[in-house]
Amino acid sequence: MDGAMILKFIAGFAIALAMMVAEYLLCTRLKSPLWGGIIPCLILGVTIWMFTGGPVPLELRYVFPFVVLNLLFFGEWADGREKRGKMQRQELKRMKARDM
User: In whole angstroms, what is the distance from residue 96 CA to residue 35 CA?
Assistant: First the structure.
């Protein structure tokens, strides 16, 4: 691999990491579950566009990474909502314990 390829890989990884952090914060900190769904839905939309009319051919070697990416972000969305529910239940327990 040459230097430009490595730089692109690192930049892509940094962007993906920033998106995962944003996804986590949107899922766990905000009340509405729709906020956490913004990034996964955008990624799904871009994926569909890339394979239907964009620059990427519809072949298995290209589809697989996009499937993994979409599953990762939609899974993160579901996990974040579950974690938010746990945090709300724990806070409710603490509030009830203080009232007694």
Answer: 29
Residues in contact with 39: Cβ distance below 8 Å, sequence separation at least 6, in sequence order: 19, 22, 23, 26, 73, 77
| Alpha helices for the chain (secondary structure H) | 3-29, 33-36, 38-52, 60-99
How far apart are the C-alpha atoms of 34 and 92, rounded to whole Å? 23
Residue with tokens 């993906």: 16
**21, 76 in Cβ contact below 8 A?**
no
CA-closest candidate to residue 63, choices 81, 50, 74: 50
- Residues sharing a CB contact under 8 Å with residue 38, sequence separation 6 or more, in sequence order: 26
CB atoms < 10 A from the CB of 43, how many?
18
pLDDT tens, position by position, 67-98? 999 999 999 999 999 999 999 999 999 998 88
Tell me what pLDDT residue 14 has: 94
Q: The pTM is what?
A: 0.80
